[in-house]
Amino acid sequence: MTGQIVVGIDGSEGSRRALEWALGEGRIRGLRVEAVIVWQSPYDFPGDFDFFSSQDDAKMADAARARLTATIEETAGARADEVEPVVVEGDPAEALCARAEKAALLVVGSRGRGIFARLALGSVSSKCAHHSPCPVVIVPAPDRGGEVQNVPAGRVVVGVDGSPGSLRALRWALDEGGARRATVQVVTVWRGVHVDEDMAMELLNFSTLAEYERASAETAKKRLERAIDEAIAGSPLVAEPAAVESVAVEGDAAETLCRYAAEADLLVVGSRGRGTFAELSLGSVSSKCAHHCPHPVVIVPAERTGTTDHDRQGGA
């Protein structure tokens, strides 16, 4: 992984946790951290408003710079000189995504306030997850409990459904597992059909519902094995993960992933998916995981036309 780690700052506890996580990841990856605060003029309205002075904007910029400096000093402590502060005026999500063009990761908190007030899941962090050119890490709000740690469990969980998007997420997770020397747990979730035996025989062309469920489980396991083999063959790993575990289970996709991720360092999902794990698309499974997972969630973007994984990770 090349490039830098960009983290959005607004002075809130959520953004402090995001910066703390980014610093830990930077230490693991040997990447520099760029802390970005975005301020937006309250006078950005259509029309001519000459009675607003440019000094007002200057005060806003100064206030943002002061808040950024304080956040870096309070969070990074003796490592504050390892963080590059950046103050930008504009739309928060657009500004962060622009800074992420050459980044390895974009890190945001799930809740925010202040100058960067729209940094709350469903607004800035959601927009970044939709539009960022690099993987987005959403660090959970403090009210979900637990401290931000980078190597507490030695486990990375990744959701896979056989789609190209989930294969990209799996490759990212394997690379991350190698850097952390962590076990990568690859999870695919298939949904059962809640019908009675007669309906199963009539609609699903299986003699029993149990037969259908066995066939579904077997299909999910084979798909998972193929995805792991393909990802390992095509992933430029920094180091081999401690281990790769595969899990195929019936249930609700988001709930299942969050359950497995409860004892992990990270949960990794793609931004688009299909198949048995069909809800794995931003706004459904990945969005639910970002809302409810107690640990950081990494959303790996779909490949953009004309780009490569190397380009997206900030390679020259």
Order of helices and strands: EHEHEHEHEEHEHHEHEHEH
Query: What is the CATH class designation of the largest domain?
Result: Alpha Beta
State the strand order across the main sheet: 3-2-1-4-5-10-9-6-7-8
Question: What is the domain total for the residues?
Answer: 2
Low-confidence stretches: 45-52, 114-122, 273-283, 305-316
Radius of gyration: 21 Å
CATH architecture of the largest domain: 3-Layer(aba) Sandwich
CATH superfamily of the largest domain: HUPs
**CATH topology-level name of the largest domain:** Rossmann fold
Q: Specify the biggest β-sheet.
A: 10 strands, mixed
Q: Supply the number of helical segments.
A: 10
Fraction of helical residues: 40-55%
Overall pLDDT score: 79
Cα distance spanning the termini: 12 Å
Description:
With 316 residues, the protein is α/β, with parallel strands linked by helices. It folds into two domains: 5-144, Rossmann fold; 155-312, HUPs (Rossmann fold). The chain is built from ten helices and ten strands. The chain has a ten-stranded mixed sheet with strand order 3-2-1-4-5-10-9-6-7-8, with helices on both faces. It is elongated, with a radius of gyration of 21 Å.
